[in-house]
Amino acid sequence: MKKIFLILIIINTNMKLAAKDKYIPIAGTEVNIRKDPNLNSQVIIQLPITKLVKIKPNMKVRDTINNVSGNWIFIETGYSSKDENKDGWVFDTYLGTSEKFKKPKRWTFKEFNGTSGDYYLNLKMKEDATYKFSYELCAGANCLPRTECFNKQDKKIVKKGYILCEGNGVILIYRDLVWLKHYGEETNEYLYIKNKKLCMQGMLEDDCD
Questions:
Q1: Which of 86, 148, 186, 200 has minimal CB crowding within 10 Å?
Q2: Contact, 116 vs 141, CB < 8 A?
Q3: 3-state class of 92 per DSSP?
Q4: Residues 207, 199: contact at Cβ < 8 Å?
C-alpha cells in the first residue's frame, strides 16, 4: 500500500542517516532548547519527544541540575530560516544517545498500529522485547514480481496484486523512548510511551490520550 511504501522509504533513509550523521532523538516532552548552557538562558524552541537532532561536536559544558550531573550539549535542531536560527543547548538527560538504551526485562505491549499523516506502521511484539514487522509494496497495477523489499534481510512474499515484506527486530527503551532496532541494527525509528500507550509522533491526539 502507498502509506506503508512511504514509511519504509523514510525508515530506510533514516537507517543511513543514523550511521553517517549520528542523529539523536529528543527524550522528553516539549524539551527546552536554550540560547546558552544554563537554566536561566532564553528558551529558543521546545522540541517534542522523538524529534531527531544532530549533536555539534566538541561543544559541551559540564553542569549539575536537580542533583543530576551531566553536560549541556549544543545541537542542530533542523529549524532555521534567514532571520532566525533555532539551534541551541540542551541538557543531555533529554538526549536519547545509544548507550542509554536498555532492553526491557519484560515487554507488555503486544501490538502497534500507528498512522502519522500518510505513514503507517504495524508491529507484532513479544514479552522478550522482540518484534516482527510487515509492510506491503506496490499494491495495484504498478506491482511487478521483480520488485524487491527495502532490506535484503526482509522476507519477500509475492501475493496477488502486491508484495508483502516481513522482518524482525529488538526493542530498547530509555525513559519514555522506544527504539526499534530492525535486525538489531541501529536505525532512527522511535516510538514513545504516553498514558500507558505506545505512540508515534504525528498520531492523532485521541490515539495516545
A1: 148
A2: no
A3: helix
A4: yes
Question: How far apart are the C-alpha atoms of 73 and 90, rounded to whole Å?
Answer: 5
Per-residue pLDDT band for 10 (boundaries 50, 70, 90) equals very low
Quickly count: other Cβ atoms within 10 Å of residue 155's Cβ. Answer: 13
* pLDDT tens sequence across 141-166: 567 777 888 788 899 988 877 888 89
| Type and span of the H or E element at 101 | none
Cell digits of residue 188: 532512527
Q: What is the DSSP letter of 121?
A: E
Helix (H, G, I), strand (E, B) or coil at 159: strand
Please tell me the distance from the alpha carbon of residue 155 to that of residue 133, in angstroms, as a whole number.
11
Q: Contact 153/34 with Cβ under 8 angstroms? A: no
